[in-house]
Amino acid sequence: MKLGRITECKISDENENSYFAQVEGTTFRLDKDQIQGQSYHLGDQIKGLIYEDMNREARIQLDIPKAASGHYDWGTVTQVRKDLGVFVDIGLYQKDLVVSLDNLPDDKSQWPQKGDQLYLTMTVDNKNRFWGELASFDQMEELFIKAADRLMNQDLEVTIFQLKLVGALAISKENFCSFIHESEWMLPPRLGQKIKGRVVKVQSDGSLNLSLKPRAHEAISDDATMLIRLLEKTPNHFLPFHDKSDPEAIKREFGISKGQFKRAVGSLMKNKQIRQEANQGIYLVTSENE
């Protein structure tokens, strides 16, 4: 039987927790907590999406997710498997889609992480395996609206939907299309990541150019830059210094006072470039350890 399609089934049985419906000799389960108090009787016809959940149990879902009905919609990454791809929740009960590693960047540091958002649709192959298919630029383009000139120099939260050789394409919740050139990155963004940038140009077509760098008055100090460079070079991107460290040890290691060290750490934490573990040290924030 071809799964992943919307079809009609007839209620054939029920118990305390579930209804059971049949189509073409196969029984599909519908849990009562999915239908919020709605009731059915034996012989009633219901219409929904048929599939197998993560435990290989046949199920029918009446509330059809947008991404499962031949359209594209946002889904949330729930799990990352480096040998397989990423799992995405589109609203199917006890079932996630897999976006294959073949459709993800070769550089795994650019893969989405848990909680990131992907714009995709559901496909089902001839072995009844469910996959998530990412939207192309042309499909994303259907969402775009023209941005106004007044957005210049404003902060904007966007989601990365495509990585290019020299930058990244993103879309805001208002559906403004944005491009972030690699020269305007602080740390390389990843696919599906939500990130805040500053509008540095409004193009004639209404698309935007963003920068992830801080404004001049927000720029980090030379001391903070030094810490970033040292963290980039150390194993595990870690330095065993923190706000309780001995001032003399900080002076010997970095050539700055403890006060300077704490100010540098504070500004980097505010910019979400590092994180501090109590009484252990500081870590560089990367796509692997955010």
Characterization of the model:
This protein is mainly beta. It has 4 domains: 6-64, OB fold (Dihydrolipoamide Acetyltransferase, E2P) (Beta Barrel); 68-135, Nucleic acid-binding proteins (OB fold (Dihydrolipoamide Acetyltransferase, E2P), Beta Barrel), CATH 2.40.50.140; 144-211, Beta Barrel (OB fold (Dihydrolipoamide Acetyltransferase, E2P)), CATH 2.40.50.140; 219-284, Winged helix-like DNA-binding domain superfamily/Winged helix DNA-binding domain (Arc Repressor Mutant, subunit A), CATH 1.10.10. Helices cover 13% and strands 37% of the residues. The protein has helices at 137-141, 222-233, 247-254, 258-270; strands at 6-14, 18-23, 26-31, 45-52, 58-61, 73-81, 85-89, 97-100, 117-124, 130-134, 155-164, 167-172, 177-181, 194-202, 208-211, 238-239, 274-277, 281-284. The strands form 4 sheets. The protein has a 5-stranded antiparallel beta sheet, with no helix packed on it. The chain has a 5-stranded antiparallel beta sheet with strand order 8-7-6-9-10, with no helix packed on it. Strands 11-12-13-15-14 form a 5-stranded mixed β-barrel. Helix 2 (222-233) packs across helix 4. It starts with 5 loop residues before the first strand and ends in a 6-residue tail after the last strand. The model has no long low-confidence stretch (mean pLDDT 92).
